[in-house]
Input
Amino acid sequence: FGHSLDDDDCIDRAWSKTDCYFGGSFDIPAEERMRLDRAYCRIDRDGLRRCLSPENDEGGKARYRVLRARHVSKATSINIYSPAGSLVHDDEGSTILLQ
Output
């Protein structure tokens, strides 16, 4: 069900390293930077829409499907959701429990 963005026209800009700024909260200075040795890219919203469009796929088959569902998790704290496991972000991606 996933779609690789490697060969598509969806990436607007790519960086080889990721800089994160969390300053201004929890007494962290605003100018303090955390550098991650991971690539980061900015997605071109219109390019993503074009590459996922059924008109751009061979045979007219869409690369996506629309699901009518309800997201069940509620944030109980920063990055903590209830019920447990209903919304998870990790190095493999994001998992969302739908009903």
In short: Helices lie at 45-52. The mean pLDDT is 79. The two ends are 18 Å apart (CA to CA).
